[in-house]
Design brief:
By secondary structure, this protein is mainly beta. The protein has 2 domains: 84 residues, Pantoate--beta-alanine Ligase, Chain: A,domain 2, CATH 3.30.1300; 337 residues, YVTN repeat-like/Quinoprotein amine dehydrogenase (Methylamine Dehydrogenase, Chain H). The longest helix is centred in the first third of the chain and has 59 residues.
Amino acid sequence: MKGFLMMEFLIASTLSISMCVTIVMLSSHAHSFLGRSALKIKVLHLADIELKEILLFLEEDFDSVEISSTTSIVEGLNTHVGIASIDNFTKKAEVSVEGYYHGSLISAHLSSVVTDIRESEGQSSCRPVQDPSLWERPRVSFFDLGSIVSDIYPTDVDVVGHLAYFSSNSSRASDPDLFIFDIENPSHVVEVSHLNTGPGASALRIAGNHAYVSNTSINAQLQIIDISDRRYPEMTSSFKLLGTYGSSTPLGTALFYKSGKIVLGTSKSDIGELHYIDVMDFHDPIYLDSVELGHGVNDIFAFKDKVYVASAHKDELKVFDVGVSGTLQETNSYNDPGATGNGKRLSLFLDTLYFGKTKTFNHYEFFSFPTSSTSLFPLWKYSMPTSIQGLSVYGNLAFVGLHQLTDSFLVLNVASSSLMRLNDMLVDLPAPLLDFDCDRDMFVVISEGSSVITFITHQ
């Protein structure tokens, strides 16, 4: 009996000790859990506060927040803040906060993207995928717009989402010259609407609910069209360039929209070839300035306070500043020594300007320039087989359209010192390439004097 009682006592004691140990362990784990949780909450809270402050600064003044990466101690925690530009109009903010609890790392990482809405309005929505292998053998298809409407010969194209806007210049003034097509299904393009703006359109840009059209008329080189209802575009206003016209009358050749302003280029004329127009009031544009170049304008690119112009002038690339005075003040120019080709196409990505020319014997057709430099000196020059008619650079990839029927579309790696070609498939067109535009990964190519458009995207 005594032995039995002793065994019960030993069992009870063992259970009591086990329970005590368990309680102590649970208490320790609970304390550790609460401590880790409190630190985790603190880390997340601090990361959230830091990110919100950065986003507020970016939204209030996008350009004042420089690209940076800093590490500091905030409230006893290691805090890393990074701001990087994704493209001309988009920045990514990242915050990492970390601390230690009894040797264990507790961390949080938050990020967000901010777009400069004002600066990006009317700009290209081309955002091609950056995986080079996907562009080795791009997918190519064709569609004849002439099967839907007659006498359409696109002179320019602007692609926004699943809609493609075309300017056209028919031989008959009574024919439409602005077209909107739904291209969501490239094998079954659908006309949304069209409009006759006058004698013929040479170029266009879409910004918000308006189309800005460069016209081949001396009575209205710029026209503004309300496209808020894409099915029923309506003329809002027409604007004739001011000045005394002589034997060389200005016809619209190129235009660029930037932050409520239009930079309009014309053929060689008596009143100058580069014009700056305020279009904040769609019904009443205001003439700001004009510049005599001596030759016609082929392409324009505007970003922040700078306007870049490609022309047939001996200085085939010119740079103007519009920031201080609100007028076109020439600050720089470039002429390839000994070359004869004309400036033709422009593209800008972050702090690098890309410049394409017409074919020049024993010289170069493709250039890049740092925009931060006070002088225009090429980072590199690259020879092309013929003239550059289309150009878009995003990230490390350059998409180049050549003025020829065969092998007309090149994808180049501009991060490589040799500008390595990525696509090994020849892209042939129904007529020599005239120009192209892109939305995300889809390129829409127009050809010279042809109603057939070409769709190009990655495999």
